[in-house]
Design goal:
The protein has about 240 residues and is an alpha+beta fold. It has helices at about 85-100, 110-125, 130-140, 190-200, 205, 215-230, 235-245, and strands at about 5-15, 20-30, 30-40, 55-65, 70-75, 165, 170-175, 185. The N and C termini lie far apart (about 50 Å). Bound molecules: zinc ion.
Length: about 240
């Protein structure tokens, strides 16, 4: 007998499947990332497909079988400005792609669901690239990859005048310890402070961050390098192109 259930889900990815169907990658409140089929989704008169656009948050009814099928959907929040603004769309796409790359199937996490939702909401309502940087550090932290930014990750000593970020060691290293990782890169004092705010997960402080273009580039390069070191096989250039917004 077919079992039915309902969940709240954010649409992360959609692709065509067979002649008339689509497969959706969604991040749900209860079951984490799952794949759902919607039969007839490509047909013009499909009643459900209009509710299943990228980045929408929906209440979805699902029939459980060998595959899981969507039988109904109602929009909770469509983040309407994202689809109308190229920069916002690129930022939301990057968030979705990172979820795709980092999160395994069926690993539930309400904090990650809330993080995705809140980040899309911020991208929708405000023009600030910093929210994507906040998202990356927060999701990495929630997955157990929080970088050390309060003291030297190697010797645990206080940070010095000149500090460096080491992807291999997982955080900031002091002048002496940078010799342990020749690939560590310089990080400004200002960006050390910004790292701490971004890892604090308080949107009120995050949206107040003021950053120069030069500092933003350093911050972004450091965070992407760290993300790439964790994903290892990521095509870093792909991310760099997307974030130039
Ligand atoms: Zn040290």
């Amino acid at each position: 007998m077919t079992k039915y259930y309902q969940t709240q889900a954010i649409i992360i990815k959609k692709r065509d499947y067979k002649e008339n169907d689509r497969v959706f990658t969604v991040f749900t409140k209860e079951n984490g990332k799952i794949f759902l089929i919607n039969r007839g989704s490509k047909k013009i008169h499909s009643k459900i497909s209009g509710h299943l656009e990228l980045f929408y948050c929906c209440n979805i009814q699902i029939a459980k079988g060998r595959n899981e099928h969507i039988t109904g959907a109602q929009i909770v929040n469509c983040f309407s400005k994202i689809s109308k603004n190229y920069n916002k769309f690129c930022q939301a796409s990057l968030v979705a792609e990172i979820v795709n790359l980092l999160i395994k199937e069926k690993e539930p996490s309400l904090p990650i669901f809330d993080l995705i939702y809140e980040t899309l909401d911020k991208i929708n309502n405000e023009d600030n690239k910093i929210f994507v940087m906040h998202f990356i550090l927060q999701i990495l932290s929630k997955l157990g990859h929080c970088p050390e930014v309060n003291f030297c990750v190697k010797c645990h000593g206080k940070l010095t005048k000149s500090n460096y970020f080491s992807c291999a060691l997982g955080g900031i290293v002091c002048e002496d310890c940078k010799k342990q990782d020749l690939e560590s890169t310089m990080i400004s004092k200002n960006n050390v402070k910004i790292f701490r705010i971004l890892l604090g997960n308080n949107f009120e402080f995050v949206e107040k961050i003021k950053i120069s273009n030069e500092n933003y580039l350093e911050l972004r390069n450091t965070i992407f390098a760290f993300l790439s070191s964790i994903l290892e096989l990521i095509d870093k250039d792909k991310f760099f192109k997307k974030i130039f917004v």
